[in-house]
C-alpha cells in the first residue's frame, strides 16, 4: 500500500510540476484512470464524470487528464470500486457499490424511507459526516453525488396497488426492495438485467422494479401496468483517491471539488428530466400508469419500520442514532 501511494504521489508531482524529494521540478502531462459501473458514455452518470475530467484538465492547463473506463473495460469489479480507489489503482470513480465498506450509508436505501429528491437531500445531509469518516478510513474522498429516479413497480399483469403484489414474483434490484415485496405477500426474485425479458416470456416472473428511464426503456413493451410507488432510492457518488487529491495544487483541488458538486447536480437533473418523459412514452405505448395512493404510501412506511430498525441494530455504531434523526427530520 505504502509503495503504491508513494508512486502515485511522485506521478502527480511530476504531472503538475511539483518539486520532488531530490529537488527536481519537472512539468509533464500525465493521464490517470477514472472508472464507472455504467457501460454507455451518454448516460447521465458518465456525462457527470466527463464534466469532472474536463474541469480538472482546464484547471491544470492540460497537465492532468483522465482516461474514463466504462464498465467491463478494466479488470475491476464494480463492487471493488472503493478498494481500487483507496489503493490508487484508479484515481477517480463513479461509485454506486459502496455499502460493503461504509455500511451506514445504507440508511439512504432503506425501503419506503425516502420518497422524493428533497427527502433524499435532507437524509443525506444527516448521514454525510458519517459517510465521510468511513471513506476517509479507506483513503477515499467524496466530491459529489447524484440520485436516480423513483424505482417503481411494473406488472406483466395488473399491479395497481400494493395488495396486488400478493403471490406475485417480482424481480428486485436490491435486498431493500425485496423486503417491501415480501411485506405485501410477494416473492422477490434476483436475476441479471439481461434475463428479465426471457423470464417474463417464460412466465417466471410477474413484474420488476425499475425506473421509467432505466430498465423500463427496453422492457415496458412486455408489461401492462406501472404502479408508481417509490420502493427505495438508488444513488451514486463521485470519489477520488485521497493521496491523489492531497498532491494537487490548491487551485486544482478547488476545481475538482466544484466540478464534483456540479457533476452530481448535472447527472441528477438529467435523470429527473428523463423520468417523466419516458413515463409518458410508456403510457402512449399502452402501459397503464397508476400513481401511488396515500394509503399505500402510509402502509409501506408502517410495514418497513421494523425493517429499518433491524437494519440499524445489525449495522450498529452510529446507525441507530442516524436513523432516528432522519426519521424525525422526515416525519416518519
Task: Write up what this structure looks like.
InterPro entries: DctP_fam, TAT_signal, TRAP_DctP_sf. It holds the Pfam family DctP. Keywords: Signal. Residues 1-29 form the signal peptide. It is built from 11 helices and 11 strands. By secondary structure, it is of the alpha/beta class. The protein has 2 domains: 2-96 and 140-147 and 237-271, D-Maltodextrin-Binding Protein, domain 2 (3-Layer(aba) Sandwich), CATH 3.40.190; 152-232 and 276-330, D-Maltodextrin-Binding Protein, domain 2 (3-Layer(aba) Sandwich), CATH 3.40.190. The strands form 2 sheets. A 6-stranded mixed beta sheet has the order 7-6-8-5-9-11, sandwiched between helices. Strands 2-1-3-10-4 form a 5-stranded mixed beta sheet, sandwiched between helices. Strand 1, helix 2 and strand 2 form a beta-alpha-beta unit. Helix 4 packs antiparallel against helix 11 (319-330).
Brief digest:
The protein has 332 residues and is an alpha/beta fold.
Task: List its salient traits.
single chain, 5-stranded mixed sheet, 2 domains, 6-stranded mixed sheet, D-Maltodextrin-Binding Protein, domain 2, 11 helices, alpha/beta, 332 residues
The count of DSSP E runs of length 2 or more, i.e. the number of strands, is 11
In CATH, what is the class of the largest domain? Alpha Beta
Largest sheet: 6 strands, mixed
Tell me which CATH architecture of the largest domain applies here: 3-Layer(aba) Sandwich
Oligomer state of the chains in this structure: single chain
* CATH 4th-level superfamily of the largest domain: Bacterial extracellular solute-binding protein, family 7
The overall pLDDT average reads 91
Distance from N terminus to C terminus (CA atoms, Å) equals: 44 Å
Please name the CATH topology of the largest domain.
D-Maltodextrin-Binding Protein, domain 2
Estimated structural class: alpha/beta
Total number of helices: 11
Helix coverage percent = 40-55%
Q: So what's the overall shape?
A: globular
Number of domains: 2
The rounded Rg comes to 22 Å
InterPro entries: DctP_fam, TAT_signal, TRAP_DctP_sf
Signal peptide: 1-29
Keywords: Signal
Protein name: TRAP transporter substrate-binding protein DctP
Amino acid at each position: 500500500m505504502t509503495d503504491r501511494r508513494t508512486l502515485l504521489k511522485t506521478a502527480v508531482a511530476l504531472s503538475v510540476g511539483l518539486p520532488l524529494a531530490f529537488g527536481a521540478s519537472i512539468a509533464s502531462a500525465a493521464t490517470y484512470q477514472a472508472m464507472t459501473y455504467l457501460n454507455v458514455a451518454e448516460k447521465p452518470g458518465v456525462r457527470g464524470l466527463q464534466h469532472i475530467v474536463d474541469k480538472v484538465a482546464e484547471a491544470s492547463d492540460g497537465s492532468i487528464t483522465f482516461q474514463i473506463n466504462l464498465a467491463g473495460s478494466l479488470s475491476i469489479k464494480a463492487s471493488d470500486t472503493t478498494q481500487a480507489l483507496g489503493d490508487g489503482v484508479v484515481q477517480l470513480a463513479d461509485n454506486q457499490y459502496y455499502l460493503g465498506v461504509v455500511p451506514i450509508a445504507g440508511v439512504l436505501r432503506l425501503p419506503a424511507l425516502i420518497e422524493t429528491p428533497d427527502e433524499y437531500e435532507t437524509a443525506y445531509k444527516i448521514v454525510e459526516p458519517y459517510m465521510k469518516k468511513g471513506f476517509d478510513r479507506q483513503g477515499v474522498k467524496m466530491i459529489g453525488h447524484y440520485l436516480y429516479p423513483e424505482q417503481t413497480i411494473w406488472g406483466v399483469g395488473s399491479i395497481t396497488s400494493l395488495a396486488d403484489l400478493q403471490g406475485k414474483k417480482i424481480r428486485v434490484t436490491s435486498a431493500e426492495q425485496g423486503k417491501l415485496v415480501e411485506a405485501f405477500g410477494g416473492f422477490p426474485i434476483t436475476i441479471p438485467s439481461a434475463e428479465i425479458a426471457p423470464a417474463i416470456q417464460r412466465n417466471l416472473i410477474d413484474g420488476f422494479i425499475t425506473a421509467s428511464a432505466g430498465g423500463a426503456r427496453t422492457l415496458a413493451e412486455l408489461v401492462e401496468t406501472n404502479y408508481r410507488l417509490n420502493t427505495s432510492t438508488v444513488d451514486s457518488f463521485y470519489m477520488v483517491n485521497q493521496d491523489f487529491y492531497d498532491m494537487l495544487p490548491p487551485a486544482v483541488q478547488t476545481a475538482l471539488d466544484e466540478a464534483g458538486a456540479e457533476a452530481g447536480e448535472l447527472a441528477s437533473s438529467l435523470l429527473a428530466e428523463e423520468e417523466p418523459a419516458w413515463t409518458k412514452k410508456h403510457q402512449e405505448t399502452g402501459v397503464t400508469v397508476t400513481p401511488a395512493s396515500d394509503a399505500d404510501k402510509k402502509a409501506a412506511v408502517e410495514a418497513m419500520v421494523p425493517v429499518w430498525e433491524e437494519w440499524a441494530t445489525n449495522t450498529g455504531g452510529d446507525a441507530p442514532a442516524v436513523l432516528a434523526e432522519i426519521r424525525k427530520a422526515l416525519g416518519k
